[in-house]
Amino acid sequence: MPEWRRALAAALIGGVSACIFTVIWGILLLFAGIEPILIPLQGAFISGMLTGVFSEIKSLGEAKSFFISIGLGSILFLFLNDFSPWNINLEKQALAAGLGTLWVILITVWSTRKVLAGIKLEGLDRDEIERLTIRIFQGMGLLFFIIIVAFPFIYMVITSLKSQMALLTNPTDLSISFESGMGGLIKSYQEVWTTFQFQRYIWISTVVSVGTVGITLSLSILGAYSVTRLRFPGRVWLSRSILIIYMFPAIVLVIPLYSIFSQLQLRNSLLGLFIVYPATTLPVALYMLKGFFSTLPAELEEAGRIDGCSRLGVIWRITLPLSLPAIASVALYVFMIAWNEFLFAFMFLDDPEIFTLSRGMVSLNSSEVPRQYLMAGAVMVTVPVMVLFFWFEKYLVSGLSAGAVKG
Asked: Which pTM does this prediction carry?
């Protein structure tokens, strides 16, 4: 087997990986206030190439090859950078240099093995070349999106843990000082929770979001079932025009709704939100549930009717238990929309006593409020939705894909 093809691929993948993660670590060092920084791309590329080749030497065994490639790669990385990577003063920042070197080499070995797993490259096989290319671009794309999504959240969390003096001294510093203890770190959260009434905003947002989920599910389950199973005039037209409301941006609807709600005295009340939020989430909920209900065998419901169940009994005892993944995904989707919605809450609510969480965030966005308070409030808005999303992720994925293919 011509091993040189696989070795060449490992060298190129290792070199590119080492360069990318060397740049990332250098940027993190800059944000941490460690200067001066010099990005050692030439040394990183050469050491990454050799590390990639070392990682593919499997004659010593999988585990030994892994640790030997990391050890040799780290030594090469330090040697090619005069034992001062990123131009770091080792007397003051030896930990940053050591962790950075280990980070770069470890990721280089892992990414090289991950990309080349199951690919032999014995010849110019089109299938293997396509798999190799797809894995490389998939990894680079995933890394890019992780960085642009994770970095703002990390910066938001770190900023919320800083003092006003630290932000004024160096607003881009990503390091966290523990000198003031845990009380000093969470001071911003305590102030936002008590002084700015965020505990009330969270409670109101929870009530509004859960109420919106309940109203939307109650209407969308019956509506989607009716469109899927019942025969009535206009059924086809209704089924095809479910999403027509999304042709109109929310900013176009908010002005006439503001005028109507003012005349009906529904503005500046939570009742107005309980009307608007289900109206905006109902079309997508109907569309998602309709796609899932159409995949359920109608024979199961007919058997239930024969056994004496009413139409509502069939829905309650047969359709709903079989539709739990789709219902869970719709509930999570509706909850996230209601929790994060800002435009209608900003236009319709004026009384601070009934502000939702997103509406209450506006009170922190002023020159008189320290920036760390705004970031602490943003963390409070973001974390609950993130926890719910990761907790119900399996239901969300299965629910969204359930009606994609009909069998």
From this structure: 0.74
